[in-house]
Amino acid sequence: MQNFYQTTIKFPEIDMEKVFNLIITYGLKVLYALIILFIGRRLIKWLIKHLNKHLDKKHVDTSLKTFLAPLINVTLNILLILSLIGMFGIEVTSFVAILGAVSLSVGLAFQGSLANFAGGVLILVLKPYRAGDFIETDKYIGVVKEIRIFYTILNTVDNRKVIIPNANLSNASLINHSAYPYRRLEMKFSFTIDNDIEKVKSVIEKIINEQDYVLKEPRPSIFFSDMNQKKLNFSVYVWVNNAEMLVVQDELMYKFKAAFDQEGINLA
User: Fold this and answer.
1) What CATH class has 182-263?
2) What does the pLDDT look like over 72-108, one tens digit per residue?
3) Which residues pair with 226 in a beta bridge?
4) Is 0.85 surpassed by the pTM of this model?
5) Which CATH number fits domain 128-176: 3.30.70.140, 2.70.70.10, 1.10.490.10, 2.30.30.60?
6) How far, in whole angstroms, is CA 78 from its chain's centroid?
């Protein structure tokens, strides 16, 4: 027992200078990292705030704004974290490679959804149509009920709800009948060959000039387009308010028919 207590326990010598240097070195790095993290976070918040204000001024669709701002926020925060990791001498290329591999896998797995997302972004930014517009695609025609980030909801003229992927709409031709406030209404008439051409034209002009809903500018146009052995063909073009087009066409047709009957003008 006496020998046991007399045995000297030897501890490894600690180089306090090296410890002090490590504390100083990494302590400063941690301090710098915290400062950069604080400034970076404040800067990201400031950028997102001003981005939202800019999107509001540009009247960007709410569905795009609520998706775009968080996406940019997450991306900037990931870049900030990677830069902080690099400050401690950790190789960030491996993290970037992992993120790239994950992104590639996700992209391949959700290729169709990403195409629809990209199409939705283009539609919401470029605005080829808006909610409430009357559009015509290669398969459907109707009113746009809602534009979402992945698809567009269309109500057809026979009251069917159609959900169309945005990739289809952004990569194909479509007609937006609501794009402009005025539209040209085209009407074609065929009369028997025995009718007086000047009388026919005069009656058409009279009916058009009496209608308040027919715009004076651009001026209406009446063309004696062609004829054959049996009939005379006229083409009539008038400009009307877009929203009233079908109603105006219906009313004009009734008045033309009544005027032709009254003047003894025979339709072919």
Assistant:
1) alpha beta
2) 888 888 888 888 877 777 776 766 676 676 666 655 5
3) 233
4) no
5) 2.30.30.60
6) 27
